[in-house]
């Protein structure tokens, strides 16, 4: 798989699942957290199985008259057994024009912030964090792309390594039912068409071809 396949696949997300950042000293766009989880699920499988996180540390830290909640998580995904750390933070106690305000959801928001940042390191909503969405003309192009069905939810998007791996596992299971070399050839031809449409990488398709060749050789030797 090309190193930027995943990045390019999710760098722009459906604008319907974003919103402007409000109540901050800075402007920008925020991706919907649940939509980010959806993207991660599409890549790796259900949360807790294909990906997840562990809170390593969290604290309420005084900042003058305000209090900051922050957390550090270890985010993991199973594609290569990868894990890395990410931080999130939220003001739990803040000064406003109307006095001191307490945010009882600060720990939840900090965790969400950490997860979104971890996902961005994989490329999910990366163009938002790269600042490309600060250009309204660019955002309009993304919106048009999704309106025309050419966005990241299009069936022609690159297939992930996790999906290709599951495909190879399925091939292995289907090869068990092959009884003759001819059966293997028919199965290979069927998969070749599907693989071409899905856009498998050369490395994964070469691995699949080796599985077909090995099974065909075993059946030929047993004949």
Protein topology:
Elements: H1 5-10, E1 18-20, E2 29-31, H2 33-44, E3 51-63, E4 66-77, E5 82-96, E6 99-102, H3 106-120, H4 126-129, H5 136-147, H6 161-175, H7 181-198, H8 202-222
Antiparallel strand pairs: 1-2, 3-4, 4-5, 5-6
Helix pairs in contact: 6-8, 7-8
Summarize this structure as a short list of keywords or feature phrases:
single chain; elongated; Enolase-like, domain 1; 223 residues; two-stranded antiparallel sheet; alpha+beta; 8 helices; 4-stranded antiparallel sheet
What's this entry about, in short?
This protein is of the alpha+beta class and 223 residues long. 46% of the residues lie in helices and 22% in strands.
Tell me the CATH superfamily of the largest domain: DNA repair protein Rad52/59/22
Q: What's the total count of β strands? A: 6
On the 0 to 100 scale, the average pLDDT is: 86
Strand arrangement within the widest β-sheet reads: 3-4-5-6
Cα end-to-end separation: 37 Å
Which radius of gyration do the C-alpha atoms yield?
23 Å
Total count of helical runs of at least 4 residues: 8
| Regions with little confidence, pLDDT below 50 for 5+ residues | none
* Beta-strand proportion: 15-25%
H/E element sequence: HEEHEEEEHHHHHH
């Amino acid at each position: 798989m090309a190193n930027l396949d995943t990045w390019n696949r999710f760098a722009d997300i459906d604008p319907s699942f974003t919103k402007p950042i409000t109540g901050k000293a800075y402007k920008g766009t925020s991706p919907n957290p649940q939509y980010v989880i959806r993207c991660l699920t599409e890549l790796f499988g259900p949360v807790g199985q294909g990906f997840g996180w562990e809170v390593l540390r969290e604290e309420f830290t005084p900042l003058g008259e305000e209090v900051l909640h922050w957390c550090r998580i270890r985010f993991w995904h199973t594609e290569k057994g990868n894990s890395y750390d990410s931080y999130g933070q939220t003001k739990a106690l803040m000064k406003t024009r109307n006095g001191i305000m307490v945010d009882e959801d600060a720990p939840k928001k900090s965790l969400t912030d950490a997860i979104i940042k971890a996902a961005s390191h994989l490329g999910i909503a990366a163009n938002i964090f790269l600042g490309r969405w600060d250009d309204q003309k660019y955002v309009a192009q993304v919106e048009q792309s999704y309106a025309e069905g050419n966005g990241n939810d299009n069936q022609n998007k690159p297939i992930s390594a996790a999906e290709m791996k599951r495909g190879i596992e399925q091939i292995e299971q289907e090869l068990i039912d092959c009884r003759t070399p001819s059966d293997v050839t028919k199965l290979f031809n069927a998969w070749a068409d599907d693989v071409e449409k899905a856009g498998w990488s050369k490395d994964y398709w070469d691995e699949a071809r080796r599985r077909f060749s090995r099974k065909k050789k075993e059946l030929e030797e047993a004949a």
